[in-house]
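Q: Got a minute? One more chain.
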Amino acid sequence: MSNTLFDDRQAARLALRCLDLTSLRDDDTDASVEALAQRADTPHGAPAALCIYPRFVPAARRALDARRLQRVKVATVVNFPRGDATPEAAEDEIHAALAAGADEIDLVFPWRALLAGDSQVGGTLLARARLACGTEPLKVILETGELKADDRIREAAAIALDAGADFLKTSTGKVAVNATPQAVAVVLDAIVERGARAGLKVAGGVATLDDVQRYLALAAAAYGAERVSPATLRFGASSLLPVLLAVLDGQAPPTREAGY
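A: Always. Here it is, folded:
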């Protein structure tokens, strides 16, 4: 690609390192999660994390350990996908997930309450979540496609950052509109305004190398190219993996797939 910060192979290699290889399907099983862990063991390196439902955390950890992929984190979702749990319920979910072996928590922001005019719910829930996570990363899913308006996205981002979110994540992947360049730009502006200490996770609908290049450019503009790494950027996807491997193998990428 022309006029990009990274050539295609550089972009694919970096995106693989920043990938949260994800399966959040209703028909997931221990066996399918074990197969996901097997996919993480690639000739070109491993992704940053597997992201799966809480009940599959032990299976994911066992499967990764069996392949000596201890460096791959196990991320799981909380208050997912609707984002309407009470602070107490979300806190209990986090404690249970961490006790089961989760390394990272992806928690849905209570965006419906915010749209209804209640910003206090988000602050209260995230304050409890931050304490429950302790030193483990808290990734807050804003559901930007439902918030829609830039000012609402910015408000949700500010609440999450003020509560100590380690990452802001665009989407659950369970709604009609997920990550978009405009929403990502708004989220990154909020992150930069607070010193660029939090990371960004782009999730839902990221499925081509063009998508990767677009979001890498936005991240590099916000953090500086030298800081773009799994510590500042994640891609939440599974359909992206075969695209990245094809590029790294010098082959034509498969056609675009929908969803995660």
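A: The chain has one domain: 8-248.
Q: Perfect, thanks.
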